[in-house]
Amino acid sequence: MTMTYLNAIREALFAEMRRDKEVFLLGQDIAAYGGAFKLTKGFLEEFGKERVIDTPIAESAIVGAAIGAALMGLKPVAEMQFSDFIVGGFNQIVNMAAKCHYRWGAAVPMVIRCPSGGGMGAGPFHSQNPEAWFTRVPGLKVVCPGIPSDAHGLLIAAIRDPNPVLYFEHKFLYRHIKEEVLAIGEPIELGKARVDRVGSDLTIITYGGTLRLVREAAERLQENEISAEIIDLRTLIPLDMDTVSISVRKTNRVLIVHEDTLTGGFGGELSARIAEYDFEYLDAPVKRIASLDTPIPFARNLEQAFMPDTDQICVAAQELAVY
Amino acid sequence: MPREDMIMPQLGESVAEGTILKWLKKVGDNVAYDEMILEISTDKIDSEIPAPIAGVLAEILVEEGDTVPVRTVIARIETDISQPSSVSIPVGEDQCVLPESKVDTLLNDVAISENKGEHTGPPLQSKRTQRFFSPLVKRIAKENNISLEELENISGSGVGGRINRQDIEKYIASSSASSGEVTKVVPMDSMRKTIAKHMVASKKISPHVMSVHEVDMSAIVAWREQWKDHFYKKHGFKLTYTPIVLHCVVQALKEFPWINASIQGDNVIEHRNIHLSMAVALKDGGLIVPVIKNAQHKNLINLCQSVQELSEKSRNKKLVMSDLEGGTFTVTNAGVFGTIMGYPIINQPQVAILAMNAIVKRPVVVDGDAIAIRSMMYFNMSYDHRIVDGMMAGRFLQRLCQLIAEFDVSGEP
Lengths: 323, 413
Known about the structure:
The structure holds 2 protein chains of 2 kinds. By secondary structure, chain A is α/β, with parallel strands linked by helices. Chain A has 13 helices and 14 strands. Chain A has 2 domains: about 1-180, Rossmann fold (3-Layer(aba) Sandwich), CATH 3.40.50; about 195-320, 3-Layer(aba) Sandwich (Rossmann fold). In chain B, a hairpin with a 4-residue loop joins strand 4 (about 35-40) and strand 5.
């Protein structure tokens, strides 16, 4: 079935809620209003107010309630209306959800859906990509799908996973991309990267919102006879270094692209690991393209200048290819 | 002119001794300040060691392969202290290969034991190369035994002339230097040279043609199985297939003297006597072709004995020149190695060579339309088309096969 990214997420929620009575949703305006992005429209009607719960504007309370429910055996899927506000629940996530199993042997099978990313002129509080904050907290899994089929399968896997999973869904992708989703209702294993495009001259590693830009760039590079291999990480934690290394050892040149800001972004960790494990296979320095280290501008033109774009990726790839 | 001692440096705190791997300079060579002069190896690292001072390498006191304690004097450099060093190294542009701490140790210890600090060159540094090589290029170079000096001379297609993977791979593909890694040069011994010469000559002299016939060895196989132990006890040598075939070959050659021949100018020399050359493979490679003289006067037992004797003499290197001369026809048996069909090269100046092959059980059509399992063997005969035509070769082989088929297996050999 052809699905938008948003519908792929919706269908995953529908499928899991129909399959497993212990799965329920909670979040701000998700029930009666159907969610800020209308992603959960119709869920209240089908599953009732016991399983589709509107909450106050209080991320700490949303996450805390979800953790409690998970500890009691339910499978909550909490929504942060905008992932920018996840910091309100930060303590609950990193000190409670992430550590419960380690400290008390109590599993926290929960998912926090985090609509994230810019490109819509939504300004500094509604456009951020906070995934890297959570990649350095042992005990959490971090998922960042870039295409509808992955969004669908990875959410199903996240819901079934016994660990707390942060699921970052890119808002720009919601209605901008669609594709045929074949394995409806089927999970995609967490921790497996995907070779999105096979190439030989350099490897471009990305995830989430920038995958579509990297795909466009690869097409343009091909016209200039530069063959780019694209690795879509899909999940940051667990990180699939095997797939990364195989590609790096083949092409010897690496470009990392993400929409999160550069400093402290996940690209830094990835770059370090490549330098550490694949040093002797590098024929050029590992390059990173990310957003500027500033708050996200509201003005469209400034936002475009702030975020990575296809031109920038092409230029960096060309520099690497001739290095 | 003063001579400065050069000592075995201490490459690391716990290192007590070092081995000279290679002297890069020889006595009498000029050495520039900081120029690599030797390679040493310790249990920690291998390293090239630069000359501590410019001059002439006057003495080498420790040979390659020898291990000596650190601080042992290993060489002396004759130097004119007043002359400034001829090499100038831009400070700060060098690639240091050793970790900083190691370099410090190394450099302190490489310093000359006398006149310390009096050299006029720039600060000592581990000079390796002025160019940048990526980790990948360095790894590929190492794997292919390409030295840094060689790398320096490869032109790069990257930014600023940098060598990239494509460049070094191209270099390796085109370079004979790297082939030393994957091949081994073995000079031919005299036997191999002789074989090579004879084989090439024969293919030039004789237009080779080959015919193949097939013969049913079943009766002989059964007969030999029955008698071989008895035969060995009685005679002290083995009853094998080769003398059985030779026995039939002799008879066939008697009937086809044109094949027991050689060519001299425009004349064909038919030989009255049949001297059978037999190819013997040697254990450590090579082969030799001794001759059974006057085979026409030998019965099967004599032939068995001759084959055994000549094989043993060949393998024990006891053959004399006369054992190798005068052959008129050659039989070779590749069957022992499992060959079922081969293409032998004529042993000049003969005109034909017969190859026996492996006796293999095969389903064959016998007695009209029946299929039976028989012990079969192919005979391949190469012959010189200058004088032997296909018809004659065919008839000869046909007769040979008939003789094999009619071989008397009724009683004791």
